[in-house]
Write a structure and sequence with these properties.
The complex is a heterodimer of chains A (472) and B (267). Chain A is α/β, with parallel strands linked by helices. Chain A is 54% helix and 11% strand. Chain A has 24 helices and twelve strands. In chain A, helix 9 packs across helix 10. Chain B has 15 helices and eight strands. Classes of the chains: A alpha/beta (472), B alpha/beta (267). Chain B: Residues 10-90, 143-227 form the Cysteine-rich domain.
Chain lengths: 472, 267
Amino acid sequence: MQINTPFFKQRAHDALADENLQKALGNLKAGFPEKRAIAVDRMPEFEQLRNQGRDLKNHILEHLDLYLEQFESKVIENGGQVHWARTAEDANKIILDLCKQVDAKTVTKGKSMVTEEIGLNDYLEANGVQPVETDLGEYILQLREDHPSHIIAPAIHLNLEDVSEAFHEHHKRPKSDDPAVLMQEAREVLRDKFVAADVGITGANFCVAETGSTIIVTNEGNGDLTQTLPKTHIVVTSIEKVVPTLEDMTLFLRLLARSATGQEFTVYNTLSTGPRREGDQDGPENFHVVLVDNGRSEMVGSEFQDMLRCIRCSACMNHCPVYGAVGGHSYGWVYPGPMGSVLTPQMIGIEKGGMLPNASTFCGKCESVCPVKIPLPKLMRHWREDEFQKHLQPKAARYGLAGWAFMAKRPVLYKPYTRMASWFMKRLAGKKGRIKKLPLAGGWTDWRDMPAPQGTTFMTAWKEQQKNGEQS
Amino acid sequence: MPNTPSGPRVGLFVTCLADMFRPSVAFATVKLLEQAGCTVEVPERQTCCGQPAFNSGDRKTTADIARQTIDAFDGYEYVVGPSGSCIGMLHYYPEVFEPSDSYYQRALDLKSRSFEVTSFLFDVIGADALQEQLKLLQFNHKVTYHDSCSGLRQLGIKQQPRELLQQVQGVELEEMEEAETCCGFGGTFCVKYPEISNRMVSNKTDNISNTGAHTLLGGDLGCLLNMAGKLKREGKAVEARHVVEILAGMADIPAIGEADYDLAQQL
């Protein structure tokens, strides 16, 4: 997937002007946060679960190698294979090889952000293998040659009319704007694809070390068909998804569904434990797990380790007022919202991803809804520190900060300086009490007035008052 | 009307915006603290909490300013300021130093004794300490309250200003939709991403005017300047004030961004 992150500002500008998108984002704002709040209210121990989730993830990350090795040996014991991919390129090659081994023409795919991350679809297509997305949202995006703008609701940026249009164009059926009709239409089209697919590729929400199982959670059931019908099932997932036991997995499932969609539990929770065994009714003949690193092991032990706790629930983006204003595509790469603002610079480099950690007011809402308590603002701040050290911030911002710092560190200079600034702005405002255009602060006064200062600084006025008080 | 100065000795953390834009907020804070029996002093060596440096990733400057602030407020029983955001910054100071640094323990100590003003009055002094004074006040208007992010999420400020407000005669509090959603100020954010900030503050002013409130109240001048500026630009007739102005009985001075007012001439 092309990296458009450096153009965040322009993309945000376009997004704010896009009425259709704004309508779609309006729906998001009213939807998920409210449902989450209701689900959380119904569960008095939710806060306790968050602490447990955070602690368990921390424990896993401390022993990541151990649990991954255990997971690998269990998968092999079950008759499957594990492939380790250090980079996106490695992962793509491994997956293409596996497809070639069974002479695959088409592969069906369940929704997987990791395959977005590594750009798998383009790679397969370029090498003669046709990927078919089966998650409804992803399927719509594929028809429109679009990309997800959200990690659990990939087509959240689209409205019903957009979907109706895309279906009409590609399915050549009468146009409809009834969601049920469109759903049925997608189901019928996809049914043949499921049956014809040579390989099924899914992600994994968790990998269970104890049993060598992977699990995907969906609300559509497309994941089940993707992983049970074709002869080969390839699970593409990342190394931090491993959990020690099935019991541990259930803790995260409870946190995940409530944080994501406000459900008590996701509708389909499908476990895969190796290929089909003798006497099994269904299941693939070949079972592969591709474990993608792609920069994650560098995060272990670094100041960004906490980010690896993320269980991809999307609560942070659902509640983020910046995401709510500009939508996921503005972020310019796979992972949007606050979690993307931390993860993206790690994967594409802070030189290209630096806009994102800066596009936050640090309002802290994301951290307050994160099911595993990732300190997202703090991690974004770490990126800003990295940028500061590398002198990556725009010159004007750096010089502005340096000038301010010079004053702020010298109380004797700071006082006359603030007094002067206050006086100057007061003069600019005149009788109105507010300034319509403030030099050097166009960003502010383009959109709102600047309230005028009251005419003197407190420090001056206080000193004056104390002096007068002593005299009287 | 200062009470007997037997109460705690409090160092006032003035905050940059109160200092430069609205000294009346700092004066109101002094008044409330004195009414609550505190002896208030204003350390001269204070400047800013260091938030601009901290949030820009400049750790060295943050640490320099933190040291300066820690020194300036040495020896006060409490440090109180009219901003959840700035006091929240003081609470971040321990993160700025290595545990081996001599300022680390002092930063922890400062954190333990620094409070946002409504939280100090309500949580430390106690709900009824100001009851007598507040009961004498009148503000016969519908108000709505914006929960500023740092105060709310970092310091747990939610009911304190509301409880204090309800003791003032005539105040009718009408909660707005999304009272806890960021107004888009975010320090340098509103200058770096003015368009996004504008969308956020527009949502806010819509929610504010939907309540039909006469006055918007809040506990942080940054957010209030942002929202007041937007309300003015949109021509909405909602006044914006820091909550301490009401609590200190100073509602007669012009609201934020209202007509000319010269504090210097008042003193």
